[in-house]
Amino acid sequence: MHEDLVHYGMPRRSGRYPYGSGKDPYQGAVSFLGEVKRLKDEGLTETEIAGALGMTTTELRSRKTLANNERKAHLSARAAQLKEQGLNNVQIGEKLGLNESSVRGLLKQGVTAKADRTTEVANYLKDFVDENGFVEFGEGVNVQLGISDVNLKTAVQMLKDQGYEVHHEVRVKQLGTKQYTNLRVLTPPGTTRAEVMANLDKIKTPGVVTDVDGNFSLGIKKPTSIDSKRIEVRYGEDGGGDMDGVIQIRRGVPDLDLGRASYVQGRIMVDGTHYLKGMVIYADDLPDGVDIRFNTPKSRTEGGKKTDVMKPIKDDPDNPFGSTIRKQLAYKDKSGNEKLSAVNMVYEEGAWDDWSVSLSSQFLSKQRISLAKQQLGKARQQREDEYQRIMSLDNPVVRKKLLGQFADEADAASYELKAAALPRQSSAVILPLTHLKKNEIYAPNYKDGERVVLVRHPHGGTFEIPELVVNNRSRKSRAIMGQPRDAVGIHPSVAGILSGADFDGDSVLVIPVNDKVKVTTSKPLKGLEGFDTKAAYPGYPGMKVMTDTQMQMGRITNLISDMTLQKASADELARAVRHSMVVIDAEKHKLNYKQSEIDNGIAALRQKYQGSKQGGSATLITRAKSPVYVNERRQRSAKEGGPVDPVTGKKVYVETGRTYESPVYKTRGGVKTDEVLRVETLNRQTKTNKMSEVDDAFELSSGKPMETVYAEYANAMKGLANKARLEQIRTPNVRKNPQAAKDYAPQVESLRAKLQRAQLNKPKERQAQIVANGVVKMKLQANPDMGQDERAKVERLAIQTARARVGSDRAGTRIVPTPDEWEAIQAGAFSNHMLSQIIDNCDMDVVQKYAMPRQGASVSPTQASRIRNMIGNGATYAEVAELMGVSTATIKEVLG
User: Fold this and answer.
1) How crowded is residue 646: how many other Cβ atoms within 10 Å of its Cβ?
2) DSSP per residue over 224-265, as a string?
3) Which DSSP helix (H) or strand (E) runs through 839?
4) Backbone angles phi, psi at 266, to 5 degrees
5) How far is CA 267 from CA 341, 346, 433, in A?
């Protein structure tokens, strides 16, 4: 077909004739439009026409716009010229081959404005590229520039015709997640993709202004430092070990005040050189002259100064604590001046209450099969009920959006393998109460006298689950902890059962047990009695300290899970658990974890239970999330058949075919040299997991009964995901109701404005990711041995600060429809395209509340007032909840 085509004269770098070389100034535009019309008259679709002309459909549309603009601009100018010569409209029409009304239209002022505006945008982008080198022009940039998306694409096409390069799918990591953002980048002529990828931090976004005076890195204000003279250290011989990780502060001290919180996980700088790390709580027994008591298991003999038992600040002015500081409090001094508090918050009261309280496979797979069946069955039923609620929606766009979201969540559920929570289960941070009995717990969210079990992760087995009795009667407990929203108090000895937990922010699942809810527990393993990780495996000078805690913990917990399912002996389990305790403390306390691996015979255990001394995964429980690498791929495009198989509902991928060059170095004596033997061409890889790569979860099972329970659940989730995707692609588009658009005109305009605000934030968010990635890159270059946990902290801080610098406010710009606006949506006041954009930018929690309202417990203003009074008079959450007939969660919601 290409050979049969007559050259259509539009500007193309690959064409034989330059733009404007024909007899008539707009000959190319006319030829091009004529050729498109001819192909369309022959029955070709837009996609087929684009293919025939050697371009994408986007290019085709842009070129048609350019051609029409060019033709109209020329005709308009020619009509004005003839008018000046004294011809009337009819005569002008005869010369131009147009009717009189068309001539009138051409002569109207502003006919050429559209073409001029496109040229103006193209010139602006050209100048921007020439100045900055790398320019991204993704969604929302057109809104920033005050033009339509078509105008922007047409302007970019004009620059492509001049030789400028466009690079699609330039991937930038979304910091703090495992996702990537694809950028469309415009660059000067001759710029290669490799050059773009090597300069990601230099990419600029038109219309986005970066605060050059703002903090360039991690956004922490210089912390206030406390004089060590104000601090008392309680050493191990004085009982400091019982409260390891607790920082006690005096009430009423302005620069230490916690605001509304009773406890926080925090960091406090000392003498400008060290810092305290742990849970910060109030104390009423501090001696005169002391504002802080720091509890440590270390002995006085371990240092001559107080700061010897504290942590030295990091050699990084952007983050001296090496932690994600989420809040820095301020206070006013006696003169009314605002100053920065010494307490830097990592988590504050209420943060642990929001943590997931589902049951992990790491815990549930070590319980009775009947309990696993029961809770996985509930999780499955919850998802099936949610699917039915979504399918009951009558708004096609909302249903499509929620089906897509549901499918992704069901896919994730198939490999995360989380089961439904048990009744009244909650998450809480643990604090030490030395006056409690070893079998007691202070937990105002639960009834006095009832029994609860505690589960901490990483979880080794039933021997790490203490069962305790709730004691909320102790005045001393209440004086120390008050009415904690999401904390429990336990005797320090209980922490030893919980995988060696301490009190610097460790959390647990609290599960009430009774005749109906039974959780299997067992006696602590004898092999763990008296085991002290720091005493058994201290580090030595020059030893390489662990930096990949997360990976090492994953390996050992997977081994323990595989051993448990294969009925390993108590002695073998004790060996593995001892090593896990060393691993979890190795980075923090600089322990010799490699010697622990040797002494506990971990390689032999891996060989026996996982089939290799290097380890791996041997059961479905551990294989589900195990990483696997496949050739880089993308979801199948619409023109290739779409991203979803229309028969099965499965996702369909297409390999990108991208490769990279990898040198193979010569080795000498087993040591790699700088001499390159050859260069191999390798396929780029994508990281996924084993469960996502199989159609049937039983392919990952070794045949154990517990694996069967989980395989059936995983397959059910995969089936639901596929079912949801099929319904998503089968759901028709919405049809706009013109009368509804008139009836709800104010609501339509309001939502249109909210959409524009959300779209304006998208370029800012992409620029924030670019800036933050540049900061992380700089930090990694300065510290190439940075561990995964530390990198994650740096990423969180970097994106937080970058958003502030460019003014990105993702949460604040999400669309939150009012009831009247939702009514307009339901009435059909929007086109399918507009409504899809609105829903894509909506706060989906709000959408779900409108679309799928659930009946929940609510309280009247009178009841709320009564709840506040009872809590204020000392009643516990559990007591008030029982009296009012609501859940403790409702009580917390009332109290804010």
Assistant:
1) 12
2) PEEPGGGEEEE-GGGTGGGGTTEEEEETT-GGG--TT-SEEE
3) helix 832-840
4) -150, 180
5) 11, 7, 22
DSSP state of 294: E
* ∠ Cα 403 713 614 (to 5°): 110
Q: What is d(CA 32, CA 200) in angstroms, rounded to the nearest whole number?
A: 37
Residue 247 dihedral angles phi and psi, to the nearest 5°: -115, 115
pLDDT value at position 31? 63
Q: Tell me how far apart the alpha carbons of residues 453 and 457 are, in angstroms, rounded to a whole number.
A: 14
865 Cβ contact partners less than 8 Å away, ≥ 6 residues apart: none
Query: Which pLDDT score, from 0 to 100, does residue 74 have?
Result: 66
DSSP structure class, residue 388:
H
Q: Position 146: which residue type? A: G
- 3-state SS of 779-837? HHHHCCCCCHHHHHHHHHHHHHHHHHHHCCCHHHHCECCCHHHHHHHHHCCCCHHHHHH
Q: What is the DSSP letter of 223?
A: P
Phi, psi values for residue 436, rounded to 5°? -75, 155
Helices (H), 566-704: 570-589, 593-599, 602-610, 620-623
User: Which residues are within 8 A (CB) of 84 and not within 5 positions of it... i.e. 6 or more apart?
Assistant: none
pLDDT at 62: 67
List alpha helices for 342-491, DSSP H: 361-364, 369-391, 396-416, 475-481
Q: Compute the half-sphere exposure of residue 818: CA atoms within 13 Å on the CB side of its CA.
A: 10
Single out the residue of 143, 151, 149, 210 nearest to residue 754, CA to CA: 143
The phi, psi pair for 409, rounded to 5°, reads -70, -40
Q: State pLDDT tens for residues 221-235.
A: 889 999 999 999 999
CA 136, 142, 144, 147: dihedral to nearest 10 degrees? 150
Q: Which two tokens stand for residue 215?
A: 């903090």
Q: Is 624 exposed, middle or buried (0-12, 13-18, 19+ CB in 10 A)?
A: buried
Run of H or E residues at 332: strand 327-332
Task: Classify residue 691 by its DSSP letter.
Answer: G
| Tokens found for residue 555 | 């390996």
Q: CA 419 to CA 430: how far, in whole Å?
A: 24
Q: Which residues contact 438 (CB under 8 A, 6 or more apart)?
A: 491, 493, 494
Q: What is the structure's pLDDT at 749?
A: 94
Question: Tens of pLDDT along 407-430?
Answer: 999 999 999 999 999 999 999 999
- Which parts of the chain sit beneath pLDDT 50? 1-28, 109-112, 214-216
Answer whether 93's CB lies under 8 Å from 83's CB.
no
Token reading at 388: 């039915």
Count Cβ neighbours within 10 Å for each residue of 780-796 and write b for 16 or more, e otherwise: eeebeebbebbbebbbb
At 375, phi and psi to the nearest 5?
Answer: -75, -35
Please give the Cα distance from 585 to 533 (Å, whole number). 8
Sign of the alpha-carbon torsion through 826, 832, 835, 839: positive
pLDDT at 131: 87
Largest CA distance in the chain: 109
Question: Mutual orientation of helices 549-565 and 570-589 as an angle, nearest 10°?
Answer: 170
Q: Does the N-terminal peptide bond of residue 458 adopt cis geometry, omega within 30 degrees of 0? A: yes
Residue 30 has a pLDDT of 55
Are residues 26 and 71 in contact, defined by beta-carbon separation less than 8 angstroms? yes
Q: Give the three-state DSSP class for 862.
A: helix
CA–CA gap between residue 729 and residue 849 (Å, rounded)? 24
Alpha helix positions (H), 436-486 = 475-481
The secondary structure of 591-614 as a DSSP string is B-HHHHHHHTTHHHHHHHHHSSTT
Residue 365 tokens read as 């797979």
